[in-house]
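Sequence, structure tokens quoted for completeness.
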Amino acid sequence: MRSQGVRTAAALAAFAAVLGAAAPAQATLAFGTAPKLPTLPAVTINGKSQTINATMASFSVTTTETAGWNVTVQGQTGTGKSAVFAQYCAAAKCGTEAEGYTPSGFSLPADSLKLSTTGAKVAGGTGTTPSLECATACNVDSATAVKILSAPTTAKGTWTASGFSTSSLQLAIPTTLRALAASQVYRVNILWTLSTGP
């Protein structure tokens, strides 16, 4: 199985996103436009549960694969990463904290960020149109990979997923969310993976 991963870090409070891409081993399966989380709107913490919405950006896949392919998303773990929204110092220094995730800092529960593909479409290419898999909202900030797009063996060329609704991304804010000091945000690392196979 060949795969290509795209890492996105999104921040909550002073919302921001950072994107990196790894080139695939061969050019027969690649993101044309890589998936990217948008900047999420600011939140006023009021001690109540809230839901904030954003529009998922369009993305595309270019392929000549004969084994089919799929796109998955998951929260990314590892050194300097967080699979859930966690307290992050976005400056060189935040008091005594260096830039990066704050050890034992505040966080949101896993599965707080969901993606819905209802209303979106996939177009372009030749052969059978790939299927969007998240008509019922899928978890994005989870350590478990979730398939969001699946293509059969006949789907070739460049396919673009677009037309996501203004509420395609929903972030649940719990009543327990804590305000952070200046230069700190809640941030999560998201990994988008493009792989061969069903």
